[in-house]
Amino acid sequence: MEKSDFSKTRNLGLQTIATKYMPATNTKGERIKAKASGGESHIHAWDYALSQARNYDVAAQTLADRLNWLDHDCILHGGSNGFDFVYVLSY
Question: How far is CA 70 from CA 8, 23, 31, 64, 82, in A?
Fold first, then answer.
């Protein structure tokens, strides 16, 4: 890996995005909460037109976009941990 690749990684702080399903309440529908390891978060309203996995993907993608992570030539990768999804960035 070139030196410039390491500097990009340090600037992003090697953060991850963890997503969690939030069931419906009396006042709100189903949601997905995406939270970066640095504390920033985003709540995505469940889109019934999308698959379960795609809802998690959209929640993580929206948070990554808000944090301008994808402007650094990064790709967001994710996978299920059995219940929810975890995402990391790669170059």
Answer: 12, 29, 23, 6, 26
Counted domains in the chain: 1
Strand runs labelled E in the chain: 16-22, 31-36, 41-45, 75-80, 85-90
pTM > 0.85: yes or no: no
- Quickly list H helices, 13-80: 52-66
Domain extent, residue 24, equals: 3-90
Confidence of residue 48 (pLDDT cuts 50, 70, 90): very high
DSSP symbol at 9: H
